[in-house]
Amino acid sequence: MFDPKTTLQKTAKKSSVALAQETAPSVSATPTASTPPAKKPRAKKAAHHCHAIGCERACPPECLMCAAHWRMVSRVNQRAVWAAYRPGQCDDKRPSGGWMSAADAAIAEVAVKEGKQAELDAWNAKQARIVEAFKRLAEGLQSAMSPEESSVADTPGASAGGSAKS
Fold it and tell me: How many domains would you assign to the chain?
């Protein structure tokens, strides 16, 4: 039978060091088979946010903007964005040029309606610099190709490994 008084008396007689050794969990310097290895923390998936200038609201990856900003976009621009949308483009990060143009128009429309002309001008300048950088990159790649590769790449319907279909 358990008697708390005698248990307390026995515990009081033991030295605090001995008691600490008895109650402390054993720690070994080397991991054992029963100890799983420490897991690396996973990187969090970047949350998708509204593409309206200055908005950080979360929205589904399939949506260009949060509901509040999307309602500011004209029906014509909304239809253009959805007409150019390709299912899966948010997963593979390869939207079409048509979707990019429609999205840019919708983003600009919201910025104008919100009176963010300065931010829109800065955004447009950044977009123009990106386009110019890609053009220079493409020109550099084109000039680095041999003349045969260059002529094949310029031929519509041609692939790098063969000739154009007739």
Answer: 1
| Distance separating alpha carbons of residues 133 and 116, to the nearest angstrom | 26
Tokens representing 87?
Answer: 């299912």
* Residue 43 included in any domain: no
With 0.85 as the threshold, say if the pTM is over it.
no
Task: For residues 142 and 140, give the distance between their C-alpha atoms in angstroms, rounded to a whole number.
Answer: 5
Q: Is residue 73 part of a domain?
A: yes
> Which residue(s) pair with 49 in the sheet?
58
Kindly state whether residue 50 falls inside one of the protein's structural domains: no
Long-range contacts formed by 81-84: CB under 8 A, 24+ apart = 81/106
Question: Which residues in the chain show pLDDT less than 70?
Answer: 1-46, 146-166
Token pair of 69 as six digits: 């900003």
Query: Is position 92 within any domain?
Result: yes
For residue 110, the tally of other CB atoms under 10 A from its CB is: 26
